[in-house]
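Reagents: none. Just compute today. Aldolase/citrate lyase family protein.
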Amino acid sequence: MNPIKQRILTGETVTAAWSEMGSPDNAEAMVMNGWPVIVIDGEHGIGGIEEAVHVARAVEAAGGEVVMRVPDGSETTLKRVLDRGIRSLIVPQVNTADYARSIAEFCTYPARGRRGYAAPIVRASRYGARPDYASNAHDELLLMVQIEHHQAVENLAAIAAVPGIDMLFVGPNDLAASIGKMERMLEPEPQALLKTIEDGAAKAGKPLGTIVGAGRDFADLARLGYRFIIGPNDVSLIVNGARQAAAERDRQLGAEGKPTAINRY
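Predicted 3D structure written out:
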């Protein structure tokens, strides 16, 4: 069983961090320092599927688990990601039930869906060492679709009802942008859309995921019933650490901030 899926289905709130830089070392370091679930960002991050597999290997070797936000919901992309052994997926920009249905079908073998078969030779089956892989792959799959457009909110009940869709994942800034409110997530209209999603998911009995932001932290989102919450990313951790170190350097050196040999490295 996919442990992330199992934790979510039993009502636990799972937290995660983003891998944006395509770096196995960055991801491994995060796992070893408090972030055992890593979300590989294949939509906005660096690298393609093979780079994602390298990150996944590092995370798994360190004792963690990976989720991948795929770049798109095409049959080829989903098939290749699943064959390469990534079993928890977020698919962006899912605005209709028809699109959600096609995604679910691309991710599952017949008779549930229409995923292409190559089970004995792919990483997902441990290159054939798991002969039962194809018959159990649907149980291991955690499939999240991203609700990040007002059209998706209008179609929320129909999307949530699609067999095989396990979670609705909210993209708050893109959602706000879809109504002309990009980077203005705290305004009443985007907040009302978020509330509509939360109410609709509760009515449908479908768990929610999202990122920290839009005025809500981990505790706020957990109280609102979100079961998968993504926080920091490797870029921000490095940049924020660099800025803090630079500010401390300048404080120690005084207003002029002249570099010395002691801080060249």
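The first helix runs from residue 3 to 9.
Action item: order primers for follow-up constructs.
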